[in-house]
Design goal:
Number of helices: 7
Largest sheet: 10 strands, antiparallel
Distance between the termini: 40 Å
Radius of gyration: 34 Å
CATH topology of one domain: Glucose Permease (Domain IIA)
Structural class: alpha+beta
Order of helices and strands: HHEHHEEEEEHHEEEEEEEEEEEEEEEEH
Length: about 450
């Protein structure tokens, strides 16, 4: 951690002190000249006026100099596990000042949201050996600043100031570095865009096994950024693509007439959605595949008729497809268990849940992607994970090899409107590519030129 030092002012003090001496000397010289009778008549009155103005300037300057030299600014960073109150105490704020400042700040901001390493500006007024806290300022979030200033009554007044933001159509086109998530955020995307990409490709891609460093992705979305280039918020996501060892796929956002929200379609107007999702959980690791294995509890080899995804307890589990719940409750060695009946003779099962989603019961209709429960360790289980099964006419099949039909395919007038929107988005992509900013600069980071 960097040391918290007062802002240097030695040169400023010297300059102000020297100026004060010159003004004082000029005033004294004029006064002596007048007393010596060097001015007379009109000249005498003019000299007195000059002397008065010189004395006034000297007094004003002395007051300014004193006030300036008594002010002190510090830049302090939040330490690991440190609260804002703890930071103020460490910086030397008196208990009464600390309490007054905190009381005002909590009205506009939750100080628990401060993160380690965040910079806080503190302002003090020196009075002899002591220092009185007069102001606090810090970035509460991208595009917003919280300030708290001492009032004439000695209390503090706090407010959150929203900074001006700029709109753009952002294009992030880059290779995956350590992870797709981190690489997308480095380009100015947010959790929202990454989650949407994961949802759109959930039918084709196992993000734990299929995505590797060096794979390529592209996102085109609406972005609002502040004066420092930080993403304040994002709007609509228009386009996304992902190229892995399994191939390349790209999808466009389009809302067909009569639909309540946009959906994802490939360049030919075919829906990104499939009848069933390959992985009904986000951010999990495939820990055991379908087939023969040595059972971790029983100690002998037996057929594993599902797929296990290791994840922390409480991770949401999604319905792999639209259907009706036929069972929701404890079930033998499966622990807490949900089974859903879909069309065309398919069913899916989810085991070892810690708890069920609110209202989950037999007979309940669920939509694809709806949260039905949460990862747990119930039943015969050696650790937190989801056991996922796909059954076709009562027989378990390997979910990873499942080939099912996709969802809606656009036709007629819907297809014509889609092609107009697809061409508009491709034009935006081309404009951004020609601008040379393959990855948008964020927070002062350099722009990266990458080959599409």
């Amino acid at each position: 951690m960097t040391a918290d030092l007062p802002t240097p002012r030695a040169s400023a003090r010297k300059g102000l002190a020297g100026l004060a001496i010159l003004v004082g000397a000029a005033g004294i010289g004029l006064a002596l000249a007048w007393n010596a009778g060097l001015f007379g008549g009109a000249a005498d009155a003019a000299a007195r006026q000059v002397a008065r103005e010189a004395f006034a300037r000297e007094a004003e300057h002395a007051a300014f100099t004193e006030a300036y030299l008594r002010q002190e600014a510090r830049e302090v960073r939040v330490g690991a596990g440190e609260t804002l109150a703890g930071l103020l105490t460490r910086a030397g704020a008196a208990r009464a000042d600390l309490n007054a400042a905190m009381a005002s700040i909590v009205d506009v901001y939750n100080p628990r949201q401060l993160r380690p390493g965040q910079e806080v500006s503190l302002f003090f007024r020196r009075d002899g050996a002591g220092a009185e806290l007069t102001g606090i300022a810090f970035r509460s979030e991208p595009g917003a600043t919280v300030t708290a200033n001492r009032t004439a009554s000695g209390s503090f007044a706090a407010r959150q100031v929203l900074m001006p933001v700029t709109f753009e159509i952002a294009r992030v086109s880059a290779a995956v570095d350590t992870s797709l998530y981190a690489s997308a955020l480095d380009g100015g995307a947010t959790d929202r865009e990454v989650a949407t990409l994961a949802d759109a490709f959930a039918y084709d891609v196992d993000f734990q096994r299929d995505v590797r460093p060096g794979d390529h992705f592209e996102l085109v979305f609406e972005r609002f950024y502040d004066d420092e280039g930080n993403t304040v918020r994002t709007g609509d996501l228009l386009f996304l693509s992902l190229e892995t060892r399994r191939g390349a796929r790209a999808f466009y956002a389009f809302q067909a007439p009569g639909d309540s929200r946009p959906d994802w379609y490939d360049g030919d107007g075919k829906s990104a959605r499939r009848f069933l999702m390959k992985t009904p959980i986000n951010g999990a690791r495939l820990s055991s595949g379908f087939g023969m294995r040595r059972h971790p509890v029983l100690g002998y080899s037996r057929m594993h008729r599902g797929t296990d995804f290791a994840a922390s307890i409480g991770t949401p589990i999604l319905a792999a497809g639209e259907g009706t719940v036929v069972r929701a409750g404890p079930f033998s060695t499966y622990g807490n268990y949900v089974r859903i009946r879909h069309g065309n003779g398919y069913e899916t099962a989810y085991a070892h849940l810690s708890r069920f989603a609110r209202g989950m019961r037999a007979g309940m209709a669920v939509r694809q992607g709806q949260v039905i429960g949460y990862v747990g360790n119930t039943g015969r289980s050696t650790g937190p994970h989801l056991h996922y099964e796909v059954l076709r006419r009562g027989q378990q099949v390997n979910p990873m090899n499942l080939q099912v039909a996709n969802g809606r395919n656009l036709a007629g007038r819907d297809r014509e409107l889609f092609e107009i929107e697809r061409n508009r988005i491709d034009t935006l992509r081309q404009v951004r590519r020609q601008s040379g900013a393959e990855v948008e600069a964020v927070g002062g980071a350099p722009k990266v030129a990458a080959t599409p």
